[in-house]
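Example record for the data management plan.
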Amino acid sequence: MTFINHYEILEIEANADLSAIKSAFNKLAMRYHPDRNLGDPIAEAMMKKLNQALRTLSDSKLRKEHDETLFKNKPNTPPKSHRTTTASDNAEPMQTKDLHEAIAACTQAINLNPKDTKAYLNRAAAYKALSDQDLALAQKAATVKKRKTKGAKEESIDLGKGISLQLVLILAGKFQMGSDPSDEDHNEDETQYEANISKPFYLGKYQITQAQWEVVMGYNPSKIKGPDLPVTNVSWEDCQKFINNLNADSEECFRLPTEAEWEYACRAGTNTSFSFGDRITTVDANCDYKIRKPIAVGSYEPNSFGIYDMHGNVFEWCRDWYGDYAKGGATDPQGPAKGKDRVMRGGSFCVKASSVRSALRNSGAPNFQSNDLGFRIAQTINS
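Corresponding structural encoding:
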């Protein structure tokens, strides 16, 4: 019988814990679930593999047998324990002091040359070797220089009860949407084309928080609570109710951003995989299973448009139906006229770093909810 590597099926590392296993399963099941892929035999077969992987890796005995076979087939790859790696796991462990010095040196190199890929990789390796307590101290001490914002114009909307909504003006412009086919992590649905955003608009400076949702809607649906955390466990349909309430009390035109507007604001004038360059680490965004839960909005540096958390923390709903991009250039693309799923962007705390790329697309049924899914608001500028 052919051996199946269940870690590859779920796209996770062999030392992933149960929480990461379940998160990976939920993300992929969202894509391949039969209810979303009616009559698709490929999706049905993939769903069976996902269920088998979840059953095997969630059972300690089955997982042990799976790992023994896996590493027997790969004799040069030592088994990894199912816990977070620390410095003591290394064959030649570095002292905490040495790791801090390495991080400081890499950070200095990055400040001198933001495109120094080797410095990013070496710093990420040093961070990974630190304990959680030492990691927090290192991140605080080795902060990269503040990113310059382009004099962004902002406005604040009073929602009541001392809660406000901050918006940033996004000017019109053209950009390359999607990703180049030669990119290592390119997906087939990221067909690259020139998109023209012909009109300026406002976009939420932060993801909508639980405090903002509660003052507008009167309740908090989030499973993981905190007033400054992004609101989660809200469907696309729930977002429409929030927007309707918001518009009912003002003369403004609030809405979800289109997928093109979202990527334009995320890229912030860049054409790299991330708005911070071609590499991203857990110092730049809440991703890659490091924290494993949403954190307060604005906890990381903004992009050059002054927008926070466009990479990671929680996925964000967009207005469009999910579908193929229009061929050739397009002005103010709106997505397909109809569809089955709505677009989700940005990645989250429980996906790998490559899944928070500027071009990465995901989708979900309009009534889908998750603890790593929220949204941010856009505002049309009435002429």
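Summary line stored alongside the record: The CA atoms of residues 251 and 382 lie 10 Å apart.
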